[in-house]
């Protein structure tokens, strides 16, 4: 007896994430493939289908292709791919497509990230929930026979070499000083893309000595979870950087669309510092090409160092809400050259406004390799403030908790803004903090920053004490 699937349990605001066999299975995926074609009007067109190294990805890719072909599309099977490979393919080939991945989620999960032609994201605002609802009806009632076009044909294509070559066109690493680089792929797709882009498996070698960690593709994640946002999952990489006397460490998440950076001392370089560093490089390149004031996008909880660095370099910073669909939309509206988030998602105009951890890593390698200062000193220029990191508090009455905090700061010299939660900023620039409620969990998320550690800790402790007082 087949499991009854309720797709509302796995369709999220930006993608699909579910537990294999419980909230997502091959039968559901086949219905999703058919609905993807129908909702986006793709009958008679090519549709890209790829997947990560999770055990269920090949089965799900085949099921999606069956559903898409049944409704008249022509699936192009990409095989094993990273998420940013899908974005590259959707952009360069002008096709809609999907990648089966659950990113950093545990092994029991799988899911789908979707893109329209040109790597335009598919979110709840742009058709994702329409696909969900139509797929649910197909799942419950059966797939109708296509009347628009005959059943499509399935073919296989490989985009890895073209993806690698394109990234090398965007950042030239051939002239940098030799660097020793430790890369932790966490048994995820970085184990496939790193040798192709930074190594010599498909392209000529670069002045990089790559020390590989956990490059074996294994969706059961035998070494550690593929979520570098959690400090514990960076422990092995930090130790390896010191052991090997490396210049830099790179950590990718499961689908390799995010990249975290470790300096030569084994300390993390904040995603905000990476955002500022890459922004300055992209501003210089755009200005050299004739742009007067290139636009850089950053979300509201990146460091204040980001807009300051952007303005100092001659760019225009634009702040947006947290979340890739917001970033990508504003990127397109503003014609922005680059965008960055605190979660280590980095977006590039030259990469179809999509996010790619590998391209961000290449920018850091180029910046480091074109000067002699160690990364710890070089990155410190972009980290003048002290950050709290994101801290979750389990709170049932989130609005009440925020109101109590604001009452405490009523007489303080601060400004309060309401974009994506509530941000309180000292008028003298000494600190700011943001309280942002989770849409899916009983969490109130705190992010803060200050001019020194004592101020950061004092404000953090004060706010969290108030938040948790009636939790």
TrEMBL record:
InterPro entries: A-D-PHexomutase_a/b/a-I, A-D-PHexomutase_a/b/a-I/II/III, A-D-PHexomutase_a/b/a-II, A-D-PHexomutase_a/b/a-III, A-D-PHexomutase_C, A-D-PHexomutase_C_sf, Alpha-D-phosphohexomutase_SF. Keywords: Isomerase, Magnesium, Metal-binding, Phosphoprotein. Pfam families: PGM_PMM_I, PGM_PMM_II, PGM_PMM_III, PGM_PMM_IV. Its EC number is 5.4.2.8. SUPFAM superfamilies: Phosphoglucomutase, C-terminal domain, Phosphoglucomutase, first 3 domains. Residues 390-464 form the Alpha-D-phosphohexomutase C-terminal domain. Its cofactor is Mg(2+). The keyword Phosphoprotein applies. Residues 10-126, 162-266, 277-385 form the Alpha-D-phosphohexomutase alpha/beta/alpha domain. GO terms for molecular function: phosphomannomutase activity. It comes from the Bacteria. PANTHER family: PHOSPHOMANNOMUTASE. Belongs to the phosphohexose mutase family. This is Phosphomannomutase. It comes from Paeniglutamicibacter psychrophenolicus. The lineage of its organism: Bacteria, Bacillati, Actinomycetota, Actinomycetes, Micrococcales.
